[in-house]
Amino acid sequence: MRRMAEETGSRRRPERRVSSQIQREVMQLILDRRLRAGAPLPTETELMNDLGVSRNSVREALKALQALDIVDIRHGYGTYVGQASLTPFVDGLTFRTLARRDDTDETGALAEILQVREVLEEGLVHRVAAVLTEAELDRLEAVVADMEEAGRAGRPFPELDREFHELLYAPLGNALVPQLLGAFWTVFSRVAGVRGWTDDPAPEVTVRRHRDIVTALRARDVGAAQRAMADHFRGIEARAAQESRGVG
Prior knowledge:
Shape: elongated
């Protein structure tokens, strides 16, 4: 009887591992087996045997990893390796920004996001200035022209603004850059929507600032391009402050 209890206790000991540890083991399994996004994971039973844990422990770990987009649970089909996107980062940063609102400076958290994005883009401009071709600059200029046309027609053009920045850094060939910039962009858009901010009150200024960036890059003047980018962000920060005060 005592021996049976000892054996049972020995088998159950792995159960005391916390969920975070099991999550790490599942992630390590994905890495060790070199599973790519979309590849099927072992079944729950196989994971139970591989990890030495219960079905409930496996399910709890998988649900936590699904929230991080590391796994994709498709009910009735199985569990697959997720895209590991920045969606959880976006959700968390959006909540952080909205939750940090206070009476003295509700734009403080948003200003921090803009500052990080500004530093990132100024550094990226320095890199991309050396590789942009005339054809790529022409495409950027075409987007600015579309922005100008939309502004004259009284249409907001946030998607064109986003397209401009995506096109600007595409020549770098860095897959993380558009994802990271897109994450910051989405957070800003969500916060603006919750705050009820209005459309750009001075679209012609926004157009000019983007055109200044293209002009500086055509001249291969990295310093001017970085200054133009900084001016662009100063404008965004000023607008955010005005909206928060109800001015605009």
